[in-house]
């Protein structure tokens, strides 16, 4: 497992580096605009949030990019390990990525908000909930993308299947009750808005993506990655 | 040691391996002969647990296929360029050593024999040199069974001589290999099997008869 992680980190370090640089650049420019140009630089942080959300749809595919290019998927199949470990290693690197990206985004978001006037107090509880739900939401997409990418080398098929599966999962999950983990923020609520985050729904999504991860693990064990 | 019974595999509905039976004893060096598209590579991949099969039984050193434990005993050298292009040779060696026991001194010996710098990236080498590297790495793994697919394909005669030299350096071990370069592989192997219609239908241990049989069967 250690060597699979080593390999996956080595292969994906440039993706990670590029994303960190983009988030940091947008964040720093945003802070500069907010503090020195009296412009709402937080827009740039929101842009990087949207970017990471979009990226997570294809992050699993990106993790197979090098192995697809050099036929190394065949080499992966010769390794004397259970093949679900090959997937797990990639899933762990994706988790690391999500933590890293969202930590940066939340940091720049917070610095920008400090300058904003007339906002309610931003408690650690609000930030932690936001941080956790963001990581879990994009990680759900990453895991689905990874699972699909392990099944086929065909790029259009991957993207089509990823989007199709996500829609199917979202629809199917409407019929399954969420665990009761609603976090309510009275300090952000008003007569018109009830501010709360349904963490139960987010966790339900994540669990469903892991169900698919397990199914694809069984598949690659038999058919190869 | 290796027992294959009634192995059946199809590609797109067409049987490639059809009720194939095969046995290999320890120390044998089996050379599979057949023209392109007759299922040699598929057979090696199925044996190496890389590809699934539909029916039949495969037992390698007492372990039934498919199992990752079988892959631990096999060194599979692919005809395809299947290593990580961005990795340096020492990185690939380090990665492989995490999964198999590797004879490092043998590998270093091979590299000096082939005049290959292990600090260079895999992608920096020519196609032929990359084949040499794959063969050298595969043969440095302390495996019980070596499956080698077309080690001489698309190599010029100088590089072919180097690969044959590497194979000649191997003492002991059980080998199953495929190649179209009969002249080079004949001295290395000690058992010759002919694959046709998804089965091994004929075999010999007489080197002198191999070419005649090949001509007769596949001409």
Largest sheet of chain A: 2 strands, antiparallel
Kindly give the count of domains of chain A.
1
- Helix-strand pattern of chain A: HHHHHHEEH
Kindly state the number of beta strands of chain B.
Answer: 10
Structural class determined from secondary elements of chain B: alpha/beta
User: DSSP helix count of chain B?
Assistant: 8
Radius of gyration over C-alpha positions of chain B, nearest whole angstrom:
17 Å
The SSE order of chain B reads EEEHEEHEHHHEHEHEEH
Q: Give the domain tally of chain B.
A: 1
Low-confidence stretches of chain B: none
**Which structural class do the helices and strands of chain A define?**
mainly alpha
Tell me about the biggest sheet of chain B? 6 strands, mixed
| CATH C-level name of chain B | Alpha Beta
> Could you estimate the helical fraction of the residues of chain A in percent?
over 70%
Oligomer: heterodimer
Note down, in words, how this protein is organized:
The complex is a heterodimer of chains A (225) and B (219). Chain A is mostly helical and 225 residues long. Chain A has one domain. Chain A has seven helices and two strands. Chain A has a two-stranded antiparallel ribbon with strand order 1-2. In chain A, helix 4 runs antiparallel to helix 5. The radius of gyration of chain A is 19 Å and the shape is globular. The two termini of chain A are 16 Å apart. Chain B has 219 residues and is an alpha/beta fold. Chain B has a single domain, classed as Rossmann fold (3-Layer(aba) Sandwich). Helix content of chain B is 34%, strand content 27%. In chain B, the strands form two sheets. Chain B has a six-stranded mixed sheet with strand order 6-7-8-3-9-10, with helices on both faces. In chain B, strands 2-1-4-5 form a four-stranded antiparallel sheet, covered by helices on one side. The longest helix of chain B has 14 residues, at 127-140. The model of chain B has no long low-confidence stretch (mean pLDDT 89). Chains A and B meet through helix 1, helix 2, helix 3 and helix 7 of A and helix 2 of B.
């Amino acid at each position: 497992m250690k060597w699979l992680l080593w390999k996956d980190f080595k292969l994906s370090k440039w993706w990670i580096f590029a994303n960190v640089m983009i988030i940091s650049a947008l964040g720093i420019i945003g802070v500069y605009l907010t503090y020195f140009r009296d412009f709402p630089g937080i827009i740039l942080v929101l842009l990087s949030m949207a970017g990471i959300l979009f990226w997570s749809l294809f992050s699993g595919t990106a993790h197979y990019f090098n192995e697809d290019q050099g036929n190394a998927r065949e080499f992966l199949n010769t390794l004397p390990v259970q093949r679900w470990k090959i997937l797990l290693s990639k899933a762990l690197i994706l988790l690391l990525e999500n933590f890293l990206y969202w930590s940066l985004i939340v940091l720049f978001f917070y610095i920008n908000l400090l300058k904003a006037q007339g906002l309610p107090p931003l408690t650690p509880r609000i930030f932690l909930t936001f941080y956790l739900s963001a990581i879990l939401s994009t990680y759900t997409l990453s895991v689905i993308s990874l699972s699909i990418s392990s099944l086929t080398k065909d790029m259009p098929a991957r993207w089509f299947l990823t989007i199709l599966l996500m829609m199917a999962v979202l629809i199917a999950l409407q019929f399954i009750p969420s665990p009761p983990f609603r976090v309510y923020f009275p300090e952000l609520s008003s007569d018109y808005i009830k501010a709360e985050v349904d963490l139960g729904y987010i966790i339900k999504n994540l669990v469903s993506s892991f169900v698919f991860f397990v199914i694809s693990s069984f598949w690659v064990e038999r058919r190869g990655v | 040691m290796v027992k294959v019974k009634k192995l059946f595999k199809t590609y797109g509905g067409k049987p490639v391996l059809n009720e194939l039976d095969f046995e290999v004893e320890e120390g044998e060096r089996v050379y599979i002969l057949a023209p392109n598209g007759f299922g040699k590579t598929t057979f090696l991949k199925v044996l190496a647990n890389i590809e699934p099969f539909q029916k039949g039984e495969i037992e390698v050193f007492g372990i039934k296929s498919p199992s990752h434990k079988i892959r631990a005993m096999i060194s599979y050298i692919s005809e395809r360029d299947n290593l990580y292009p961005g990795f340096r040779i020492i990185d690939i060696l380090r990665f492989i050593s995490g999964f198999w026991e590797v004879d490092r001194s043998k590998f270093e010996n091979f590299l000096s024999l082939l005049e290959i710098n292990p600090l260079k990236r895999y992608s920096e080498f020519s196609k032929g040199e990359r084949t040499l590297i794959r063969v050298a790495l595969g043969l440095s793994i302390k495996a019980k069974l070596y499956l080698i697919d077309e080690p001489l394909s698309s190599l010029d005669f100088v590089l072919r001589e180097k690969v044959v030299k590497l194979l000649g350096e191997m003492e002991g071990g059980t080998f199953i290999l495929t190649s179209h370069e009969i002249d080079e592989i004949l001295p290395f192997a000690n058992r010759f099997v002919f694959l046709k219609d998804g089965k091994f239908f004929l075999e010999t241990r007489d080197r002198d008869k191999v070419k005649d049989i090949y001509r007769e069967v596949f001409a």
